[in-house]
């Protein structure tokens, strides 16, 4: 098939790395739509991705010679659909429905007018892809990898680099995820009724997992991975457009926008973590804060009781509203954490509440809450528990106990910059030599 056989192809030559950069940019923008559209046809997201990859290979082969098409997304979709028909024929699975699909494709408009995108249908397809890639039948790690691959257009190598795991591990997760979805006959659809809330929670969890790994890396030599934060923000904004009536979607978007606004202030000159209360708030991104407030307002206007992400966004907004750390309304934050603990109880929420109570009502009351979590199985090995206890103990003047807690936190963290900060904090509390 020549370039002129594809929709909207241009004959002007465009060689060199510039075209490859354009292809990469187009793929990042269009991958989700193309895979989603093909998945609607073949009802298998694994096969849909293979077909989309075939179209990408065709672009890499043809566009350096022919030039980038006027409508590159339609070009890729057309190639993918034709590959779908070819694949179906090769596998000889020509039931009546597939034969009809093949005839329809062959009799459609000429390539230059082929498959003009229908925005509403594209959005529906992408939303179906989101819910399928984030299906609870998959492990959290598999959902993250598949989402970044299908919706983010990231390569296996890029995902592996972002999460500091071998490329083969990521590739295996993606392959197994596709196989699991196929074997479980997971439908390519947006769930309705009682199952929708649970499935939406899974989708939001995946996006927030991606964001958190970028916001405070769990391992490695970097404290912040801005690329993952950006990707999660992009996915959150897409979700907000696709599901405008879901307050928790807007809540998550608001939470990530406000947290991301602190990125420039969260690291020092050597890349070391800077605690929230020590950050230069003049470096916070006011545009992202404004976007976060707007998303939070959209969530509240829907009129439903606040869910976990809306509540967390409201807490983030309290910090963003304070011109300086000492102006923070800790009483309001502690109150919001109390509500959050009722709506979505978890040991981590209780630990955060201990911090807020410690700031609002004194370190002794905060330490009481933190100490109550000492035997919590979910926090065993969680470095922030001894870190929080160390901070509260230091404020109470119990310096030796605080030093021990910071050393314990340093042993538990897998992030190198964070470990150094914790050890420095422990050293600063050591008794001076006689």
From TrEMBL:
Record protein name field: RNA polymerase sigma factor
Could you say which protein family the record assigns here? Belongs to the sigma-70 factor family. ECF subfamily.
Identify the residues that the record assigns to the DUF6596 domain, covering every copy.
Answer: 199-299
> A single Gene Ontology molecular function, please?
DNA binding
* Gene3D superfamilies reported for this sequence: 1.10.1740.10, Winged helix-like DNA-binding domain superfamily/Winged helix DNA-binding domain
Q: Which organism is it from?
A: Actinomadura citrea
Q: Which UniProt keywords apply?
A: DNA-binding, Sigma factor, Transcription, Transcription regulation
Give TM segment ranges: none
Question: Which BP terms does GO give this entry?
Answer: DNA-templated transcription initiation; response to stress
NCBIfam families found in the cross-reference section: sigma70-ECF (TIGR02937)
Instruction: Cite the RNA polymerase sigma-70 region domain residue spans from the record.
Output: 35-93
Q: Which residues form the RNA polymerase sigma factor 70 region 4 type domain?
A: 131-181
